[in-house]
Amino acid sequence: MSVNTEQVEARPDVEEAIARIDERGAEIRAEQLERALSRLEATDELTPEQRAAVERLGDRLVEQLLAVPHESLRDAARRGDGEAVATALSLFE
């Protein structure tokens, strides 16, 4: 049985690309949560439960938004599409 070496070599790059995408998603989440929570806290009406709910919402949004790119990159790696992986890496340097 022959192994596609390009596919095997692309796998670590896929995980690196996903890590970069996740890092950027976390950065955006943190920035936007800080902005929203600052505005809400300025009214002195934000309860700890509400703050936690807003933070969970941010987590879920990022998770769901990034699920498709994660799967697309893993599919690209399985197909041996190094170009798609390289593009993702270059977009999130």
UniProtKB/TrEMBL annotation:
<dbReference type="InterPro" id="IPR015896">
    <property type="entry name" value="4pyrrol_synth_GluRdtase_dimer"/>
</dbReference>
<dbReference type="InterPro" id="IPR036453">
    <property type="entry name" value="GluRdtase_dimer_dom_sf"/>
</dbReference>
<protein>
    <submittedName>
        <fullName>Glutamyl-tRNA reductase</fullName>
    </submittedName>
</protein>
<dbReference type="GO" id="GO:0008883">
    <property type="term" value="F:glutamyl-tRNA reductase activity"/>
</dbReference>
<dbReference type="Pfam" id="PF00745">
    <property type="entry name" value="GlutR_dimer"/>
</dbReference>
<dbReference type="GO" id="GO:0033014">
    <property type="term" value="P:tetrapyrrole biosynthetic process"/>
</dbReference>
<dbReference type="GO" id="GO:0050661">
    <property type="term" value="F:NADP binding"/>
</dbReference>
<feature type="domain" description="Tetrapyrrole biosynthesis glutamyl-tRNA reductase dimerisation">
    <location>
        <begin position="13"/>
        <end position="92"/>
    </location>
</feature>
